[in-house]
Amino acid sequence: MTAQEGSQLDLQQYFPYRLARLAEQVSLAVAEVYSERFALTRQEWRVLAILGLRTEIATKEIGPLTTLDKMQVSRAVQGLQSRGIASRKHHPDDRRELIVALTPAGRALYRKIVPFALARETELLGVLTAEEVEVLDRAMHKLSAALS
Fold first, then answer.
1. The HTH marR-type domain covers which part of the protein (predicted)?
2. Run of H or E residues at 41
3. pLDDT tens digits for range 47-82
């Protein structure tokens, strides 16, 4: 019998579950900023946030940066494009690939949302001391590196 056989697992104390649950709670708390005030989906917000830091980006590069799958990226880009927030064009070297960029209206929206998003982040982290925020950041980097 191995150490795992016959063991029990309390889901409420299981680290992967607790982390996933916390991530969902944080995501929902931040969603109040972009969903209620700006009528964006979670996926659209993630794509907008990525585009806000770039002039343009290939759609295939968005997924790994946002944890969105190919279909979610496609739908988010389509939603942003339909509202004049983003534009798409074919890659000059590969017509199968699309390049996405924010329109002037998209840039304005990004600039409008960012202060709200950063304020929400500050509010969420406000329950922690500065030292706890540093420890949390280091722990997240360490876990991420171990899983990469």
1. 12-145
2. none
3. 999 999 999 999 999 999 999 999 999 999 999 999
Longest dimension (CA), the chain: 64
* CB 76, CB 43: distance < 8 Å: yes
In order of 3, 14, 55, 112, the CA distances from 10 in angstroms are 16, 6, 47, 43
Where in the sequence is the domain holding 139, given as residue range(s)?
12-147
Determine, yes or no, domain membership for 23: yes
Q: How far is residue 43's CA from residue 69's CA, in Å, rounded to a whole number?
A: 10
By the 10 Å C-beta count (0-12 exposed, 13-18 middle, 19+ buried), 106 is classed as: buried
Compute CA 144 distance to the chain's CA centroid, rounded to the nearest angstrom.
Answer: 15
Residue 36's SS3 state is: helix
